[in-house]
Design brief:
312 residues, 12% strand, 7 helices, globular, seven-stranded parallel beta sheet, single chain, 7 strands, alpha/beta
Length: 312
């Protein structure tokens, strides 16, 4: 169920019963992200400019961009409906360039724009991204404040494009610690895009998989206490209805991508990932582009998904 960017010779063939045995990490390649105009290292002021690799759609939103053709190696019939991404490596990307962490986060937003554009072009229906974990609240306050402000700025800059391009935005997570200005902006963006159907972008902010399961259990317990539900009626479906991913038609990711070389799910969508295909990529998130995404999708399309059963 997981991959380190390795080739599988047969595509959805009944005779292919095991993965290729030689897992490997490719060597880091020459930086594909250059030209940052930033403040002194250690500062969290927003970078003035982030110039990205050629396929990034530098500094632009989705508005007015033409669709990206589907690579020849990918089959439209085998595309996942729901892709989840742990966008890891922004800080290390900045550190490698002797830049402040804010530069890495800004570059990460550009990479997310690229991913949204590709999902829209290639027929993926749901993209869920891990933007800010409940565990991230322990980071320095100046970094947390910058990330929340960056989230606000990104919503403001993209909302018109989302409306025009048919993208629905949903935000999941524990909202109790979020600033009122951000909560109002989230509510407005969700309302303005709720009828869009081309792509649903789910952003996990102040989220963790454990939090999600606990809040679902509390909701079920309250229904039992109020007499709306019997204990004997509680099953998986009841729990799943209370998970925060109940905001989408496709709550279970088909494919999880994690960048930066880390090999863990880090408390993300723990219930929902039960049968998700896992793909780990060594590139840092700002360097994850079209070719890397196509490679992840190609790996997914060569998997056999049995859900506990056995193909004859």
């Amino acid at each position: 169920m997981f991959s380190f960017r390795f080739p599988v010779p047969l595509v959805n063939s009944p005779s292919s019963h095991s993965f290729h045995s030689h897992f490997y990490y490719p060597l880091y390649h020459r930086s594909q992200t250059q030209g940052l105009a930033v403040t002194k290292r250690g500062s969290f002021a927003a970078p003035a400019c982030v110039a990205l690799r050629d396929d990034a759609g530098e500094g632009t939103s989705l508005a007015g961009e033409s669709p990206e053709p589907l690579p020849d190696e990918l089959s439209p019939e085998l595309m996942p409906k729901h892709v989840a991404v742990i966008m890891d490596g922004n800080g290390r990307w900045a550190k490698l360039r002797d830049l402040p962490p804010s530069a890495g986060h800004q570059a990460g937003v550009q990479s997310l724009r690229r991913m949204v554009r590709l999902c829209c072009s290639w027929g993926i229906k749901v993209l869920t991204v891990f933007a800010f974990s409940t565990d991230n609240w322990v980071r320095p306050k100046v970094e947390v404040d910058f990330l929340l402000k960056l989230f606000e700025r990104t919503i403001n800059s993209e909302i018109d494009a989302f409306k025009r391009e048919g993208i629905r935005i949903s935000v999941i997570g524990d909202s109790s610690k979020l600033p009122e200005s951000l909560l109002r902006l989230i509510a407005s963006a969700e309302e303005d895009t709720k009828n869009n159907t081309r792509l649903q972008l789910i952003v996990a902010v102040s989220y963790s998989g454990k939090y999600d399961v606990v809040q679902a259990c509390k909701s079920v317990a309250k229904k039992v206490k109020d007499g709306d539900l019997y204990v004997d009626d509680i099953n998986e479906n009841i729990i799943e209805q209370e998970l925060e991913t109940n905001c989408t038609e496709f709550p279970y990711p088909d494919l999880l991508i994690r960048t930066s070389g880390e090999l863990r799910v880090s408390n993300f969508l723990l219930w929902q990932l039960a049968y998700t295909e896992l793909y780990f990529n060594r590139d840092l998130w700002p360097d994850f582009g079209k070719d890397e995404f196509a490679e992840a999708l190609s790996s997914f399309q060569q998997r056999q998904r049995r859900y506990g059963g056995r193909h004859s």
